[in-house]
């Protein structure tokens, strides 16, 4: 048996449990001073305070009196893409909006062209590099979406890349099928036919190959209407894909209400989510997966996170890493923005980036807290307490990242 003992933890901060925390629970964090964590064969065996157990044969990691938290969960990324889109920065600076750039042939379509042109090996190598970087910043579990293939062959290619990386890379990964990210150029005149392709050709193959757990759709002005989104997500359910939805990112056209109605596992973005959407999500038990670095990058307002917490909607926070609306994969920046822009407390933010993120990808029984039985995923921070990592920004404060009991 392989054992790893993390001792001399100045402060261990973790939510507890195996399901999302909402309302006042969102801010409940267990703090243990002078703690230790014993990991056996990649799984947390015990957690305690005071004298560390003898643990014969264990590799010892000295946390040097620092802060330890669960490994961070990035529950929303568009990890698999060809190229980048730095050329859009200038357009943005000269006042073009996200949807204007998209409608001019930039945006998702241009990344789709680059992704279609990339081989599976190229996409794998590029995404692996991003995963290395994410892990260095403290992420130990992530979700990844397809959605830059927008053709059967290329959507399946992206999902295979995610499956292979989940096997090859230390990061634990969960895949989401997002064939309905945009109607690709060749179907612009025949949207219904593209949606048919997504639902009747791509989804059966995704199910048959077992390469995705969730189905997502970009419900937005100029992409997919509420009715089209409903059609896609209901088809996904038939193929065993649980619904997720990009809702209220730019315009509130009813995506959050649809999420509530369908009982989606999560709704994403919610930047301009109206009160009726919050109410619908609370009723439908939907997790709000908020992406503050996207608001930052788009120069948009920030999602009404406090209203969501107050309404009893569990709030998760993730990066949205993608080459357009958020070329940032650093969950520490998300933590900073969660406090500074959403005005959530450090405790509420920690829950958002660990347990609630895990719940948003149906992984809360395995990751998201430091408790016996969960995976041995920890971050030792170059920080004395939780406030410190929320307040410092721009540096990488992850001192050591431990994944399934291995020091990365
Ligand atoms: O989550 N909103 C849709 N998809 C991404 C952006 C994709 C892109 O710009 O390439 C997002 O923001
Ligand atoms: Fe997204």
Structural commentary:
This protein has 408 residues and is of the alpha/beta class. It contains 15 helices and 16 strands. The protein has helices at 88-93, 98-103, 107-116, 120-136, 152-168, 191-209, 226-238, 255-262, 275-284, 292-298, 305-310, 331-340, 346-353, 355-360, 386-391, and strands at residues 3-14, 30-40, 43-49, 59-62, 67-70, 72-74, 139-145, 172-180, 214-217, 242-247, 266-269, 287-290, 315-317, 378-381, 398-403, 406-407. The strands form 2 sheets. Strands 1, 2, 3, 4, 5, 14, 15 and 16 form an 8-stranded mixed sheet that branches. Strands 6-7-8-9-10-11-12-13 form an 8-stranded parallel sheet. It is globular, with a radius of gyration of 21 Å. The two termini are 19 Å apart. The mean pLDDT is 97. Fe (iii) ion (FE) is lined by residues 76, 78, 246, 268, 320.
* DSSP helical segment count: 15
Bound molecules: N-(iminomethyl)-L-glutamic acid, fe (iii) ion
Q: Which term fits the overall shape?
A: globular
Mean pLDDT: 97
Q: Biggest β-sheet, characterized?
A: 8 strands, mixed
How much is the radius of gyration in Å?
A: 21 Å
Can you count the beta strands?
16
What structural class is derived from the secondary structure elements?
Answer: alpha/beta
Terminal-residue CA separation: 19 Å
DSSP strand content:
15-25%
Uncertain parts: none
- Helix coverage percent of residues? 25-40%
């Amino acid at each position: 048996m392989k054992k790893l003992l993390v001792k001399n933890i100045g402060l261990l901060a973790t939510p507890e449990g195996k399901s999302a925390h909402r309302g006042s629970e969102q801010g409940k964090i267990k703090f243990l001073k002078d703690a230790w964590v014993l990991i056996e064969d990649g799984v947390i065996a015990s957690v305690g305070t005071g004298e560390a157990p003898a643990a014969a044969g264990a590799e010892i990691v000295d946390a040097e009196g620092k802060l330890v938290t669960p490994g961070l969960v990035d529950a929303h990324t568009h990890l698999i893409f060809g190229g980048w889109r730095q050329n859009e920065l200038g357009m943005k600076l000269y006042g073009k909006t996200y949807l204007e750039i998209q409608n001019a042939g930039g945006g998702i379509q241009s990344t789709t062209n680059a992704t279609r042109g990339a081989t599976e090996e190229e996409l794998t190598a590029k995404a692996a590099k991003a995963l290395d970087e994410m892990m260095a910043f403290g992420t130990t579990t992530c979700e990844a979406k397809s959605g830059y293939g927008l053709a059967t062959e290329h959507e399946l290619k992206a999902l295979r890349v995610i499956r292979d990386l989940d096997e090859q890379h230390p990061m634990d990964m969960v895949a989401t099928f997002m064939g309905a990210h945009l109607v690709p150029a060749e179907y612009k005149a025949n949207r219904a036919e593209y949606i048919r392709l997504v639902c009747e050709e791509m989804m059966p193959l995704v199910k048959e190959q077992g390469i995705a757990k969730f189905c997502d759709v970009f419900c937005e002005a100029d992409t997919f209407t509420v009715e089209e989104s409903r059609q896609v997500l209901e088809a996904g359910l038939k193929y065993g894909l649980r619904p997720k939805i990009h809702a209220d990112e730019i315009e509130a056209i009813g995506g959050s209400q649809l999420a509530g109605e369908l009982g989606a596992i999560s709704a994403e973005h919610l930047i301009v989510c109206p009160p009726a959407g919050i109410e619908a999500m609370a009723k439908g038990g939907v997790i709000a997966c908020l992406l503050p670095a996207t608001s930052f990058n788009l120069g948009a307002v920030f999602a009404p996170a406090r209203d969501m917490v107050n309404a009893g909607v569990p709030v998760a926070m993730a990066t949205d890493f993608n080459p357009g609306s958020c070329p940032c994969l650093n969950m520490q920046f998300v933590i900073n923005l969660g406090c500074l822009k959403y005005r959530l407390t450090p405790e509420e933010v920690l829950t958002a980036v660990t347990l609630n993120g895990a719940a948003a990808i149906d992984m809360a029984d395995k990751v998201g807290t430091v408790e016996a039985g969960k995976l041995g995923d920890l971050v030792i921070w170059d920080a004395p307490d939780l406030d410190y990592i929320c307040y410092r920004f721009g540096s990488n404060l992850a001192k050591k990242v431990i994944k399934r009991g291995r020091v990365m």
